[in-house]
Automatic annotation (TrEMBL), chains A, B:
Belongs to the peptidase M20 family. CDD domains: M20_bAS. PANTHER family: ALLANTOATE AMIDOHYDROLASE (PTHR32494:SF5), ALLANTOATE DEIMINASE-RELATED (PTHR32494). Pfam families: Peptidase_M20. NCBIfam families: hydantase, PRK09290.1-5. The keyword Metal-binding does not apply. This is Allantoate amidohydrolase. InterPro entries: Amidase_Cbmase, Bact_exopeptidase_dim_dom, Peptidase_M20. Keywords: Hydrolase. It comes from Paenibacillus borealis.
């Protein structure tokens, strides 16, 4: 590999991160929900900074912000990099924001160090990924990739009944002005004003993100090269028994829905451990009815969240678990009702790009490993349409979606350098 | 056994039961909470009916209603029989009320058929047993037996903040007039006006009650002769793990509080089945925190309700379960906190009286069995102070504390005849 030494300015990136963290609703950590005043101010802040770096800035109809560094080969497809600007309620300052701040810093460094690229580079700050305000995740990247067509804005509403459409209008986003200051751009027709279909001009997408898990920390490694983003299945399971008097019903005459659910949850755990990494299976919510200390539970409802990077194994694990649940219910005389509430396919990352990332780590002397992302990311929406790569840095104690989310400057800087070298490979090297 | 044929008028008892059921707050089933207008009307209705039967009627300072049939041996102790007039929210018409209606019918029949007894007979309608309005169970029988001294009335309040004291005053019960129409009585000094200490004049207590369980129905028997009322231990168990991302935390790096709780509940069930009847163990309430489908549970809290008729076995079972929970928590790296919230001792019924009941069943041609009461009853408060007996009749499908509570007239009549014969044995036979 013939890549120049990359030493991108990590402190510049950190100041962008700290600057973004200031745009938050009151309360612990960072709360920056879609189309709120703090969200709008954050996106405006980024537009100013991108413009200050000499990037051509625009927004699209859902408020994604782009900063563009035009390439000398105008017919080449765009190299896109970035992440999402929204947070969960009382989240941290790294989830999403790190990928944007690092991408901006990388583009600025590359332009200043190496001048105009061959292929156009764009940094993107996606408007939304978390689904924390409206019941739609990936609202930003979903518009770029065609998951959404905009019609959802009329009906989807937040917990106070505000539709996405009216929240967008409050931020100055409307169908009459679907793209912000597109006039600044003018060098690429694929992103023409009024664009409503998915972008077809993207040749590669690279996302840098904190791991949000403990794998890198526990193995004391700097970089995770993501091989795939796990597919997810979510279910709601209802177990029905007979509510009865806790004192007068002998043990052998019970149809205890909670005892049955407990056996199912233990079986789930046993099967998941047996299946091995990267399979994970979780029941995060469980409710008991009637929920009185001296009444045998008549009904229990619990959720399942099951993830794997390979579609076939995810499918067969889920089938096996459900068969096991049916056996337990039948043996105990309980009713069982399973509803699938979510199903996303695993998203494999591009193998060539992953190998390039590994070579960059070797040439920079970074410790690294390949891994699966159990969490969902914007990158998973790009994987089927263009070459896609994803880079992880460690999260302290694996904590995320919390004010305690933290990665050190050294860890963040390592990821920045790997991303910058990757963008150099993609945009500056003759293919 | 030399007992005359007893054929007490079951329809008279049924009309009393139906009459009582009419005193209810609106809604399904019967709702007659302590010191409400419907409760007061029900107790006044009983006083009228008792007076109509020629019984000497009085109330005490907590609103227990007594109907007295004085014996010819004034120095003999009182034979007391009855149950409680209050219900749970949306309860049935048999729980408690049956024991009162049958006792009144029995006394009336005995007086009409056999005249004055040797020993004084009293029927009691206890003001409260369920603990449905105020956080004190056995408020009625607890005053007669010394569990309460009345000071609780100042502080204990219902969910709307009304203290027992002010609720009592609204029913005309006050410290100035602690005993209602005691003047009607005048033949027994132990229940003198102003009585605040427990009664010491009671020689035996007999309670007739629906089983509230499925044992008699499943064995197709008419009468249950209660050998003991089970002791109860209740606990709140808190299991602490680490809340973490459901997608990014490998199975072997989890401290899942819900998986740990599930293992504990299965172990509880296994141990209880192994211990065998009459041990019962139930977890009726369980809560998961944070309770989000994609977050590994960090904390779980659940209740335990464990009952047995023998104090030593109850104690050793609870110790064994707790030791098992500690092992599970230690192996999983979870914290465990157990708080005992209730402990009542088992109450053995009088063996001589139980044998008399069995002989009555044999002489009346009733099918019967001895059994343990898993539910608590007023009788358990008398067991340590006087000879106490308890009679069960079947409950359809074991349903109780529900508008669906039901026992047939035939079943109720069998219990009435056994109770009547028992009272004849205790009050009319030369000892």
């Amino acid at each position: 590999m013939n890549t120049p030494l990359i030493q991108a300015p990590a402190r510049e990136m950190l100041m962008l991160l700290e600057g973004l963290a200031a745009f938050s609703a009151p309360g612990p950590g960072v709360t920056r929900l879609l189309y709120t005043p703090e969200w709008l101010q954050a996106q405006q802040f980024l537009q100013e900074r991108m413009a200050g770096m000499g990037l051509a800035v625009r927004t699209d109809r859902v408020g994604n912000v782009y900063g563009r560094l035009g390439g000398s080969q105008p017919d080449s497809k765009v190299i896109l990099t970035g992440s999402h600007i929204d947070t969960v309620l009382n989240g941290g300052k790294y989830d999403g924001a790190y990928g944007i701040a690092a991408a901006m810093t990388a583009l600025n460094y590359l332009q200043q160090t190496f001048g105009q690229p061959l292929r156009t580079l764009e940094v993107v700050s996606f408007s939304e990924e978390e689904g924390s305000r409206f019941p739609l995740t990936f609202w930003g990247s979903g518009h770029v990739t065609g998951l959404y067509d905009g019609s959802e804005a009329e009906t989807a509403a937040d917990s106070e009944g505000v539709t996405i459409k009216s929240a967008m209008e409050a931020c100055g986003l409307s169908s009459e002005h679907p793209l912000g200051d597109l006039r600044d751009l003018g060098d690429h027709k694929a992103v023409a004003a009024g664009q409503t279909a998915a972008r077809t001009d993207i040749g590669a997408f690279v996302e840098l993100h904190i791991e949000q898990g403990i794998v890198l920390e526990q193995s004391a490694l700097q970089i995770g090269v993501v091989q795939a983003i796990a597919g997810q299945r979510r279910f709601t399971v209802k177990v029905g028994g007979t509510a009865n008097h806790a004192g007068t019903t002998p043990m052998l005459h019970r149809r205890d829905a909670l005892a049955g659910a407990a056996e199912m949850l233990l079986e789930l755990e046993r099967s998941a451990v047996e299946a091995g990494d990267p399979l994970v299976a979780t029941s995060g919510r469980l409710e008991v009815y009637p929920g009185t200390s001296n009444v045998i539970p008549g009904d229990v409802q619990f959720t399942l969240d099951i993830r794997h990077s390979e579609a076939k194994r995810l499918e067969s694990f889920c089938s096996g678990v459900m068969a096991g649940f049916e056996d337990i219910a039948a043996r105990r005389g309980l009713t069982l009702e399973v509803v699938r509430t979510l199903s996303t396919a695993p998203a494999p990352m591009d193998q060539g790009l992953s190998r390039t990332l590994e070579q960059i780590c070797l040439s920079q002397g970074r410790t690294f490993r390949t891994m699966i992302s159990g969490a969902g990311h914007d990158a998973q929406l790009f994987a089927s349409g263009c070459r896609t790569a994803m880079i992880f840095v460690p999260s302290r104690a694996g904590i995320s979606h919390s004010p305690d989310e933290y990665s050190s400057l050294e860890e963040l800087a390592a990821g920045l350098d790997v991303l910058t070298a990757m963008l150099y490979e993609l945009a500056y090297k003759e293919s």
